[in-house]
Specification:
about 25% strand; three-stranded antiparallel beta sheet; eight-stranded antiparallel beta sheet; alpha+beta; 10 helices
Amino acid sequence: MINNKSNSLNLMSILEQALKKAVGLGYLKWGLIFGVANGMAVYSYYRENRNKYDLEAYQQSVTRYVSYQSGKMAETYIPKWLRSPLFSMFGYIYNVNYDDMLEPLENYENFQQFFTRKIKSREFDKNTNKLIVPADSKVLSFCEVKDDSPILVKNVHYKLGYFLTGQETFEMTPQILEDVKKRQNTKLYSVIFYLAPGDYHRYHLPSDFQLKSRSHIVGHLAPVKISYISSTPKVYETNERVALFGTYNFGLMNIVLVGATNVGSMTLNYDKEFQTNQKAEELFVYKHYDPIIQLKKGDELGMFKLGSTVVMMFEAENVKWNIEEGQKCKWGDVFAEVS
């Protein structure tokens, strides 16, 4: 297995030779053209249709179609001799951490298996007052939630009510925020973790979590990289997402998993019926869990079948943050101490 950048310097030529042998330059050329055409189509779609929020518009979204096809392509079988150079090139570009892999590169039969690979177990702080990072990711923002407009990234905010409910006109007023809290003399906080393509794509529980309900909100699958969300309004509010509502030892906790372009789907380990990026009958699907589902800190919650974003909102009386904006984290790192 190739596991360092110095050994990857000549991978471009290796990969090119491999691709020539596998499919020929003609297919490679048309694949590039197809990719560029898809990109132009997505750009055109968003410039013309950003304000369409009905179910039909979402079903016809170019980004949903492209992401669905990307998911299918990621499941395409790769010959064993091609896997190591192909995955090594991807890893070189996206800084994949090979040290914690359980399998050699040649054991992953397609990109989907590589993206959603399991890794070696990690130790994490089990103290109940310490919240751990749910996924290998970058910290986009963290803040106190005082109104309907928490910070998304620097100088950019998102509409919390719209984001959590799928209802554009629903506003999280200070009174509503006060009413949803489970304890007195506490505050609400938001933290956002962005998963890059090269990151480990499974997400874990930041604490013991009593899951009461979930809402699946159908939407677009626009890019969620910082450069895009900084210049394009309502990306989080209109992308497909699933919101998990519940409590933890110190009060309210919500965990929202946000889809993105080329994310084939998101999964929930405890709910095998749940599916995303599929043809939906409704724009908003709510499910109440009776009895409440008890989930343990550090347990695997599910996976992105590429990479995307985890948004958390939680209640606490006091918070000591152990992170900075833009910081790279691994799941299991402590990001906050709460009381």
